[in-house]
Amino acid sequence: MDVSRAMEELIDKGGPMIWPLLFCSVLVLTIVLERIFFWCKDAAKKQTILREKLLNAVENNDVEGVLNEAKDSTDPVVLFLKEGLEHRSNDPTLAMEINSRYQVKHMNRNLSFLDVIVTLAPILGILGTVFGIIESFDLLGQRGLQDPHEVTGGVARALISTAAGLVVAIMAMIPVAILRSRCRHRLQTFEIMARRLMLVLGKDKINAV
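The structure corresponding to this sequence follows.
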């Protein structure tokens, strides 16, 4: 009961900009939970042994056997290496690049919305404060300094929207930094795996000559 009463008081004091800020906060929470679920599923798909098998398939002369074993895999790194091996006779680098771009698109899904909210939320908060200050000065022009506490109280209430905007921006900023870091780490993994695979394929071409 106290929480709901506090929320009602916050909305009442925060002015009209509190509503879009509340919407932004719900959107941030929804996106962050969806991304957490995505990365938890991603961690469960990891197949380290199969990754190494794909890298060693050329040297072991068992490329087709390992590719057949990997056909049902959902590990993103396995799928990345699989693309390189399947197109080893044409352009494995291009095949892996296309696959990585596709996967990066899914890893960065909805993060652009969080970037917008990081910028937009403080602006909405400041706009709400400006509205509140205008209202306070209008009250001051009508009543003069007969009740200064009412005017200063209005300014204090106006600052609530700025505080709310900053809180929402921080709510979005921290998850964005963490999620972007996870994406960069995956790209580094792709790069390392691609270099290792190309090294093996290069040795295979030399041996064939």
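Residues 205-209 have pLDDT under 50 and may be disordered.
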